[in-house]
Amino acid sequence: MNFSNTLIYWYLQNNRELPWRKTKDPYLVWLSEIMLQQTRIAQGLSYYLKFSEAFPKVENLANAEESTVLKMWQGLGYYSRARNLHFTAKYITQDLQGVFPSTYKELLKLKGVGDYTASAIASICFDEPTAVVDGNVYRVLARYFGIHTPINSTKGIKEFKALAQSMIDVEQPGTFNQAIMDFGSLQCKPQNPNCEECPINNSCVANEKGLTKILPIKEKKIKIKNRFFNYLVFVTEDGTTELEERKGKGIWQGMYQFPLIETAKEVAESTLITMEAFQQKVPSKSKIQLYNKDAIVHKLSHQHLHTRFWIIKLKENTKATIHWYDIEKYPVPVLISNFIEDFNKKSHNFF
Known about the structure:
Helices cover about 40% and strands about 15% of the residues. The protein contains 15 helices and nine strands. It has helices at about 5-15, 25-35, 40-55, 60, 65-75, 80-95, 105, 115-125, 135-145, 155-165, 175-185, 205-210, 270, 275-280, 335-345, and strands at about 225-235, 240, 245, 255, 260-265, 285-290, 295-300, 305-315, 320-325. It is elongated and about 75 Å long. The protein starts with a helix and ends in a 6-residue tail after the last helix.
């Protein structure tokens, strides 16, 4: 039994029962694939169910407000995925009359759709033999064939794509793609792979040469940037506060946050209150209180946000028009959401 047949046979015995595997609707498959990028199935499943119920058709998603989409996406991270999802839904509805592209090349033209997602949709929904390559596939192929080329190098990306394409079962490409991904996730795990019960262990180079802890190889990560956020949380006597929408191309575009002052390093209150940005945002004679003495470190892929929340108590503020009871209606990053939840539990200390 060859590599492809063995994995498909394993998959038919061990595959996970997931809602998006019960359909070949390209909209629902696309929705699941976008959500599962850099997200574990255990986390993404509830979001998929929520979205597919609220937006059963691509037209429903296209007609939603972006703020609604972002609010429903809250907590899933990498919010550019949500914005691209909404943009593409509108494009398919308005420009393509609601008809999903049916080929790998056409799918690649959609915003937010790369090689992996296009390959998945094309193979699963339209039986086009285009191989998917994700972290699971990289791991299985690198170990099985004993490949030392870094998986995140230009050479590695091309090499593994070509190899995966040569291994695909052209008669059932969608099943093969799901099989190799599930095999990497459940059997050939990053840590502690189940090599003893692996159906291809007799021909696996990594198993034979003791390379399972070494392969696959990744080039060194880029340097992590540290940023220092100071959020100004206004609390008026009427129980209102202020939120602002994040603009530009940076993180959390379209999400809401408390007024922010970013500094080059962690600053004390005595320094913060002398800054021009602070004086422009905060009325004089306001009471300021540091909410968290130790900065909350929120880790993103390429940056760490060292965050402190400053409670600004004042009688009134013309910009503080949002009541605390309405604040949960706004899409906010999980960092802000966690603060709001904690603050609400202790609000009697501040109101």
